[in-house]
């Protein structure tokens, strides 16, 4: 469903991403790994429209999306999370989820002002979807707390819930396990698999936690210094000499 | 070490106090014949300056101790650690309180002096302005220092329309508001990419451009002379003047067979302003809970996250600017009608600053807070009139104290709690 072809991104004299290609099929978890500064997040930023790539193509269901504005890409169903949690800190947890459903709501000012039946029905549907996902990620009791006051692990889960209420087709998670304790990481592991199995969402994952990556990925792409190093199933990657040298460490 | 640092700091502050107050208060220019001579002030002033410098020195020296004591005052407050009321109860109380307040505001003008009603109308105009700016600054987080421009657009629209085409208040009200909204939209486009300080500077410039334009486009706006003879609003074609100005209209006092009184007009304007202010408050309150209101806040909290969820920055920011400007246009039309005469003098930067101060003092995003602050900020300088030239000083000091003790504003914004149905 997603195909990245020879993606390059240049910042002045620095070629941050050089000829990276990857593809994601329906119903698949694909990971991108690589040492710090390898250009993983830059690839994400190109895919989600935050950067205009200097070269290459990104196809989503056959449609070229490189260089499109970020909010349009998100409306196509390509939604991402961030390396550092980016919640709307002073809004409540439910409000965070309501904002995410903006495009599912009736945003006509007049129908909102007089609260037409259509407006109210859509608002209620959004609330129901929000409470469903709050239940799903175990944040129901926190619904009316300000998002900024949640514990870090809860913020991470809220961010994923916030992506899911937009009903995405492809979810891009940028280091979702960063800062989580082992128990939370295990929960996250379960959650990501369930997103794929139960909600039919494909996932692209950037992660440093190798046990998480190896455990849930269908395929892995390795990037080093902006260039593709290897790609394949977790077993292939684990036994790839180049990867071991560059990243996993020679042991 | 700390003491030495404190001493240095306190000395510095005292010297600054001296440096500032000595030329301002210690020296006087006196006209002797055609000559102007510089004279020192009387000894009493000198002593006062010395005492002030000493007070500053001592306060800064024992700053921690003094502020610590003040902090202890909090524990004296019996309401300090009272639990917040449950939302339903609070909302009920609030709506009862508000209804009472509005009813009171409706009958109140019939029992007080003309001057008070006039002042109250001004308060209501500021409430409208502050509620509108609250959308832009408090909710959308866009620092707008040129808000008064939209107020001017509303006022001048009415003044010019009535002067050239004889259009009445009721026609001009929506036109003025819509035109101001259009200006908001036009300003919104170029500043979309700007944030924070940059946005503030551009909006400041825009405010000045409008004022200077009004000042210099003499053959249309009358320049610094302003526009006079702006008609009063009519009530279903009834005029409030002693004599009917326009063919076909009747006068209010003759229709009802009561004696003419200048107060009728003032009260009528007050009531119009009240209705419009309540309308403004209700509409914005509703907007805050609609998708667009949530989008404003989301964009303020984290623009990148908002965009990654499919919110268009353009649409959201423009809507905030436009809606804010719309209500400023409302306020401007009422203002023009109340004054009967407007000139660019009324739309200087200080006005923008005062409206912004109201929003910040009241508590960003909080409607009740903003309304309270608008009342306080408009009435306080009037109450302090007997202090003549020192009244702005008192006003400034009050604001500084407010910001030190309650930086979140008089009544900080409270988030609405949403009840969710659990489980399927």
Automatic annotation (TrEMBL), chain A:
InterPro entries: AAA+_ATPase, ABC_AA/LPS_Transport, ABC_transporter-like_ATP-bd, ABC_transporter-like_CS, BCA_ABC_TP_C, P-loop_NTPase. SMART domains: AAA. Keywords: Amino-acid transport, ATP-binding, Nucleotide-binding, Transport. The keyword Zinc does not apply. One of its GO terms (molecular function) is ATP hydrolysis activity. Residues 2-250 form the ABC transporter domain. Gene3D superfamilies: P-loop containing nucleotide triphosphate hydrolases. One of its GO terms (cellular component) is plasma membrane. It comes from the Bacteria. GO terms for biological process: D-alanine transmembrane transport; L-alanine transport; L-isoleucine import across plasma membrane; L-valine import across plasma membrane. Belongs to the ABC transporter superfamily. This is L-leucine ABC transporter ATP-binding protein /L-isoleucine ABC transporter ATP-binding protein /L-valine ABC transporter ATP-binding protein. It comes from Marinobacter daqiaonensis.
From TrEMBL, chain B:
The keyword RNA-binding does not apply. The chain crosses the membrane at residues 7-24, 44-62, 91-111, 123-143, 148-165, 171-192, 266-284, 318-336, 348-380, 392-411. GO terms for cellular component: plasma membrane. One of its GO terms (molecular function) is branched-chain amino acid transmembrane transporter activity. Residues 6-108 form the High-affinity branched-chain amino acid transport system permease LivHM N-terminal domain. Keywords: Cell membrane, Membrane, Transmembrane, Transmembrane helix. It is found in: Cell inner membrane. It is a multi-pass membrane protein. CDD domains: TM_PBP1_LivM_like. It comes from the Bacteria. Its main location: membrane. InterPro entries: ABC_transp_permease (IPR001851), LivHM_N (IPR021807), LivM-like (IPR043428). PANTHER family: HIGH-AFFINITY BRANCHED-CHAIN AMINO ACID TRANSPORT SYSTEM PERMEASE, HIGH-AFFINITY BRANCHED-CHAIN AMINO ACID TRANSPORT SYSTEM PERMEASE PROTEIN LIVM. This is L-leucine ABC transporter membrane protein /L-isoleucine ABC transporter membrane protein /L-valine ABC transporter membrane protein. It comes from Marinobacter daqiaonensis.
């Amino acid at each position: 469903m997603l195909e990245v072809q020879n993606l390059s991104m240049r910042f002045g004299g620095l070629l941050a991403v050089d000829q990276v290609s990857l593809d994601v099929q329906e119903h698949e978890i694909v990971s991108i790994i690589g040492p710090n500064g390898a250009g993983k997040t830059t690839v994400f930023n190109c895919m989600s429209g935050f950067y205009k790539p200097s070269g290459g193509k990104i196809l989503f269901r056959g449609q070229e999306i490189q260089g499109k504005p970020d909010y349009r890409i998100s409306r196509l169903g390509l939604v991402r999370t961030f390396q550092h949690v980016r919640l709307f800190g002073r809004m409540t947890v439910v409000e965070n989820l309501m904002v995410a459903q903006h495009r599912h709501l009736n945003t006509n000012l007049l129908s909102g002002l007089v609260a037409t039946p259509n407006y109210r029905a859509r608002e209620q549907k959004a609330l129901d979807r929000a409470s469903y996902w709050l239940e799903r990620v175990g944040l129901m009791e926190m619904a009316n707390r300000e998002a900024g006051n949640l514990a870090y692990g809860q913020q991470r889960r809220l961010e994923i819930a916030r992506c899911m209420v937009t009903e995405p087709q492809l979810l891009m998670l940028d280091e979702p396990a960063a800062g989580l304790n082992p128990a939370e990481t295990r929960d996250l592991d379960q959650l990501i698999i369930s997103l794929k199995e139960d909600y039919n969402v494909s996932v692209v994952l950037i992660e440093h936690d190798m046990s998480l990556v190896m455990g849930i990925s269908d395929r892995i792409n390795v990037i080093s210094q902006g260039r593709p190093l290897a790609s394949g199933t977790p077993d292939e990657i684990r036994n790839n000499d180049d990867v071991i040298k560059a990243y996993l460490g020679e042991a | 070490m700390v003491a030495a640092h404190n001493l240095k700091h306190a000395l510095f502050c005292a010297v600054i106090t001296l440096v500032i107050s000595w030329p301002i208060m210690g020296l006087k220019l006196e006209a002797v014949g055609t000559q102007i001579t510089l004279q020192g002030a009387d000894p009493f002033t000198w002593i006062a300056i010395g005492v002030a410098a000493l007070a500053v020195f001592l306060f800064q020296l024992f700053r921690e101790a003094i502020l610590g004591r003040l902090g202890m005052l909090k524990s004296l407050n019996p309401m300090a650690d009272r639990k917040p009321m449950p939302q339903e109860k609070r909302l009920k109380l609030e709506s009862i309180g508000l209804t009472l307040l509005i009813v009171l505001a409706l009958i109140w003008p019939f029992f007080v002096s003309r001057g008070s009603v006039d002042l109250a109308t001004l308060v209501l105009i500021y409430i409208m302005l502050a509620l509108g700016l609250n959308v832009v600054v408090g909710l959308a987080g866009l620092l707008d220092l040129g808000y008064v421009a939209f107020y001017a657009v509303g006022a001048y629209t009415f003044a010019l329309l009535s002067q050239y085409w004889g259009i009445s208040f009721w026609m001009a009200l929506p036109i003025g508001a819509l035109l101001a909204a259009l200006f908001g939209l036009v300003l919104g486009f170029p500043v979309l990419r700007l944030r924070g300080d940059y946005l503030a500077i551009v909006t400041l410039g825009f405010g000045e451009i409008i004022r200077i334009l009004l000042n210099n486009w003499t053959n249309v706006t009358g320049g610094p002379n302003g526009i006079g003879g702006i008609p009063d609003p009519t009530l279903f074609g009834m005029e409030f003047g002693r004599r009917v100005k326009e063919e076909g209209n009747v006068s209010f006092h003759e229709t009802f067979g009561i004696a003419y009184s200048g107060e009728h007009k003032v009260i009528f304007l007050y009531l119009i302003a009240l209705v419009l202010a309540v309308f403004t408050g209700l509409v914005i309150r509703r907007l805050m809970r609609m998708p667009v209101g949530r989008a404003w806040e989301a964009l303020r909290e984290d623009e990148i996250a908002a965009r990654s969820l499919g919110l268009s920055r353009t649409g959201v920011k423009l809507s905030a600017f436009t809606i804010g400007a719309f209500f400023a246009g409302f306020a401007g039309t009422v203002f023009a009608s109340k004054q009967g005469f407007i000139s660019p003098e009324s739309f200087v930067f200080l006005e923008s600053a005062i409206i912004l101060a109201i929003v910040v003092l009241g508590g960003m995003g909080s409607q009740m807070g903003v309304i309270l602050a608008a009342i306080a900020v408009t009435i306080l300088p009037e109450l302090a009139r007997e202090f003549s030239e020192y009244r702005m000083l008192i006003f400034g000091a009050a604001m500084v104290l407010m910001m030190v003790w309650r930086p979140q504003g008089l009544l900080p914004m409270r988030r609405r709690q949403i009840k969710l149905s659990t489980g399927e």
